[in-house]
Design a protein that fits this description.
A hairpin with a 7-residue loop joins strand 22 and strand 23. The protein has 3 domains: 13-136, Immunoglobulins (Immunoglobulin-like, Sandwich), CATH 2.60.40.10; 198-322, Immunoglobulin-like (Sandwich), CATH 2.60.40; 326-445, Sandwich (Immunoglobulin-like). It has 2 helices and 33 strands. It has 447 residues and is mostly beta strands.
Length: 447
């Protein structure tokens, strides 16, 4: 049975559970993190981070910020830590770095690397997690066992065949020979290798969906071993292209993730969990009408801290037409003054005209006229419904302009001192890719 997910999630960063390396092609900068899957308290772990510029253009002054759980200890500072200095990446190039942490607490410990530009805009990121087990004490003190040993499979070693016994014939005398060394003590028989569960995880989902449609993802956990498994945790993780709708009963909702605590699975049995996600139009639809997004499933909590993961990726396509550039739409903007030159202290009138020389309506447009510094508005603009923010004069949204038509706007301003003043008109619209502008210079002559 599926249960509705009542909380709408923010489409922020992903939580990636130890998939070795995680990358999202939609980001301008791809971040790949390689590190251990499991470790113990007291161990020092290292993560190799590769940063790749996939934007197709040079990127300058990128900042690297690392956020980590309290179970991690870094010698420099508490979370977050920003790497010293910035990096520049030419298109298609990469940079590598290593992050070291000391593990302080047991449990699932995660850290996230984010790349920001100088305007604090998110350029890319990835998360990696380690299942940390408590240190195991021994008779000689706490021993730290490498995680590679914990994850190594148990291999049964065959017993060597004993040499055949030489039995003397019946009635023959058996000579007594003094042993040259103390007799060997019979060793205890080898302990039988205990049976262990073996869990497999498979995730299925669509290969292509349309924007605003529902995608169903089903994870099946099978026990192919000869013993029952212990309780485990199954988690689904998705990106910003999805909005969660429904999930199998018993879920726990997180940020861009949902999880279940699975009961014991008998040998040969299986459990099934499902999540329904609504695909959204690609955030980069202005450049491409489709995008690729992935859903990951992670099974954790098994013996030795071993994790199993699977991934299903889908192409999300949109039938929304690509927005046109102002030139493709046939839109033109002009800004002219009625009086030039003008004596300082007097006013000049600006006339701004938005023309549609295309074959389709323009859609609603926004117009802002930026006056020069020290300019003073004279009278009321036409139309008079404007918002004034310093030297920016923003007109109310312009109704769609029919093909072959135009709309005009007027305002007057003066300058208190003699100078060459420059005014700029900027127009944009929801159905237009980018903005278009026009400038006008007026000479104010000192008296």
């Amino acid at each position: 049975m599926l249960r509705h997910l009542f909380r709408v999630l923010c489409a922020g960063g992903l939580t990636v559970a130890n998939l070795g390396a995680s990358v999202f092609a939609e980001d301008a900068v791809a971040v790949l993190i390689t590190g251990p899957l499991a470790a113990k308290v007291g161990e020092r772990v290292s993560f190799e981070v590769e940063i790749v510029n996939r934007s197709g253009r040079p990127l300058d002054k990128l900042r690297i910020v690392d956020y980590f759980d309290k179970g991690y200890h870094h010698e420099a500072s508490v979370s977050p830590i920003e790497q010293k200095g910035t990096i520049d990446l030419a298109a298609g190039t990469s940079r590598r770095m290593t992050l070291d942490f000391l593990l302080d607490e047991p449990g699932r410990q995660c850290h996230r690397v984010e790349i920001l530009d100088q305007a604090h805009a998110f350029m890319g990121g990835a998360t990696s997690c380690v299942q940390v087990a408590a240190a195991t004490p021994s008779a000689f003190g706490a021993a730290v066992v490498p995680s590679a040993v914990l994850a190594a499979p148990i291999v049964a070693t065959p017993l060597l065949a004993a040499p055949p016994l030489s039995v003397p014939p019946v009635g023959a005398a058996v000579p007594l020979v003094a042993p040259a060394s103390p007799p060997l003590t019979a060793s205890a028989p080898p302990a039988a290798v205990s049976a262990a569960p073996s869990l497999e995880l498979g995730l299925t989902g669509p290969s292509e969906v349309m924007a605003d449609s529902v995608a169903e993802y089903v994870a099946v956990v099978r026990n192919t071993g000869i013993a029952a498994s212990g309780p485990t945790t199954l988690e689904f993780i998705w990106g910003e292209a999805y909005v969660p709708l429904e999930a199998s009963d018993g879920y726990t909702l997180g940020t861009s993730a949902v999880s279940w605590n699975l009961p014991s699975i008998d040998p040969g049995a299986q459990l099934r969990r499902q999540i329904n996600l609504r695909a959204q139009s690609p955030a980069t639809y202005r450049k491409a009408p489709s995008s690729r997004s992935c859903v990951r499933s992670v099974l954790s909590g098994m013996v030795g801290g071993v994790m199993v993961a699977d991934e299903s990726c889908v192409m999300i396509r949109s039938n929304t037409p690509l927005p046109r550039s102002p030139r493709e739409a046939g839109l033109r903007l002009s800004l002219a003054d009625c009086d030039d030159p003008v004596q300082a202290g007097s006013a000049t009138k600006l006339v701004c005209t938005v023309s549609n020389n295309g074959t389709a309506p323009s859609g609603r447009l926004d117009l802002v006229i930026v006056l020069p510094d020290q300019a003073r508005l004279v009278g009321d603009p036409t139309p008079s419904r404007v918002r004034i923010d310093g030297s920016n004069i923003a007109f109310d949204s312009i109704p769609s302009i029919a093909p072959g038509s135009h709309t005009a706007f007027e305002l007057s301003y003066r300058m208190p001192i003699g100078s060459v003043a420059k005014a700029t008109a900027i127009a944009s619209g929801a159905e237009i890719d980018g903005s278009f502008e026009s400038t006008c210079t007026t000479t104010f002559v000192a008296p």
